[in-house]
Amino acid sequence: MTVYYTLTFFLLFAEMVTFCLLVAPLPYTIRKKLFRFLSNSPIIAKVAYGLKISFIFIGILFVDALQRMYRVTAEADIAKSGHHGVQDVRSDTNLSARKFYAQRNTYLTGFTLFLSLVLTRTFYIILDLIHTQEEYAKLKKSAASSDAKDVEALKTRVKELEAEERDFKTLKQQASQNAKEYDRLATQLNEAPGANKSNKRRD
Asked: Where do the TM regions start and end (predicted)?
């Protein structure tokens, strides 16, 4: 395998390891710190820029490998049809090896490009999920604080109403006592002897 296909293989292996790390069931705090580092680090941004350039070259290799695979497949079909005479074992083995290498290079570059797209999309989906979880936590805290304020306001209002009710009961009690005292004094005044005489004189 040539140098650039070897590098493509190592890049594919690195993509597989990275994908496993991205989808691993990590705790929320660790995942949050990891993705914050990956999205804000200038070093990672430079590495990503270099990878984008390398993926352009891998795309060119994919197109070249695809053309070679079609060409070798066509040659193999022509050889099997017997238009160029009887093929010996060496030429048949050579043709099969070329076909295998062309297919291997096509699949290697194709899977590398495909996994790069999957990695990019998975990274941004998980990043959006982390942002959504952060917003949900903020909303939950604000809702809890507002609910606590509402509960405190309701408790204060209930205490005020209870105090007003106690004042009303006290006032009602005082009014009842004053009415009883007035009735007692009025009865006592009516039963007094001087009051009866004055009433008779008036009559």
From this structure: 6-26, 47-66, 107-130
